[in-house]
């Protein structure tokens, strides 16, 4: 059976022991607006932050290692999950993250797929890649090497 309608929202749940630091980083530093969410009292806290359009990127291990190499990050051991956030200016996002205490794992780099990528270590151990698009999806789809998985030989 296939769903007749695609999901309407993707939520990535980041469990953290330092809730205040995570909220400060994602909401206050990265500017993700908060929406109302239900939680009881005391330590039962939750923040739902709007991060724009969501996509799921499925990457074979070889592709993930290639991205690690392009960004200049040592490959992770085993499967990983990290955030990738499209931003207007990668340099500005990195500066804001660093001012908030994030560690730079990979400084901004121009990639072969026409983005400017950088990676930081966010709260709760999550890696966050900032990427700035340098061309539209339409422009990219006309270039050699860009196709859907179903189109690959």
Defining key terms:
24% helix; four-stranded mixed β-sheet; 153 residues; 2,3-Dihydroxybiphenyl 1,2-Dioxygenase, domain 1; alpha+beta
Provide a descriptive summary of the structure in words:
The chain contains four helices and six strands; from the N terminus they run H-E-E-H-E-H-E-E-E-H. It is of the alpha+beta class and 153 residues long. It has a single domain, classed as 2,3-Dihydroxybiphenyl 1,2-Dioxygenase, domain 1 (Roll). The strands form two sheets. A four-stranded mixed beta sheet has the order 3-6-5-4, covered by helices on one side. Strands 1-2 form a two-stranded antiparallel ribbon. The radius of gyration is 17 Å and the shape is globular. The two termini are 27 Å apart. 15% of the residues are buried. The model has no long low-confidence stretch (mean pLDDT 85).
Topology record:
Blueprint: H1 19-29, E1 34-35, E2 48-49, H2 61-71, E3 83-86, H3 90-99, E4 103-110, E5 115-121, E6 127-133, H4 137-141
Compact summary:
The chain is built from four helices and six strands. By secondary structure, the chain is an alpha+beta fold. The mean pLDDT is 85.
């Amino acid at each position: 059976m296939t769903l007749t309608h695609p999901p309407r929202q993707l939520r990535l749940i980041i469990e953290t022991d330092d809730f205040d630091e995570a909220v400060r980083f994602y909401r206050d530093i990265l500017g993700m607006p908060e929406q109302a969410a239900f939680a009881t009292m005391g330590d039962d806290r939750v923040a739902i932050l709007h991060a724009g359009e969501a996509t799921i990127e499925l990457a074979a291990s070889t592709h993930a290692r290639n991205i690690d190499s392009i960004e200049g990050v040592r490959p992770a051991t085993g499967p990983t999950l990290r955030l990738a956030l499209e931003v207007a200016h990668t340099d500005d996002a990195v500066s804001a993250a660093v001012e908030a205490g994030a560690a730079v794992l990979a400084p901004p780099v121009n990639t072969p797929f026409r983005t400017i990528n950088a990676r930081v270590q966010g709260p709760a151990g999550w890696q966050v890649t900032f990427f700035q698009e340098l061309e539209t999806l339409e422009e990219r789809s006309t270039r050699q090497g860009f196709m859907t998985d179903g189109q690959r030989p």
